[in-house]
Amino acid sequence: MNKKYLAKIIATDHEGLQLISAFCAEAKVKTADIKYLKKNKVFIMSLTRSMNEGDNTKNINSICKFDFVDK
Q1: Which residues contact 19 (CB under 8 A, 6 or more apart)?
Q2: Segment 15-39, tens digit of pLDDT
Q3: Which of 14, 54, 66, 67 is 20 to 30 A away from residue 39, measured at CA?
């Protein structure tokens, strides 16, 4: 059975940002999948990253969202 779930990582400090950076390393991002919502001060991007599990590699679709972005 293939389980699908949502996991959320919230960075509130430098260590949290390093964790998110590690997960996003070597991810693929399309320019069209990057959005800045000026009114809401939110930056969003969709990315595809690889997750290696032994001999298997899975592609994971992720959303990276940053709140309180001025510009």
Answers
A1: 9, 11
A2: 988 988 888 888 999 999 999 999 9
A3: 14
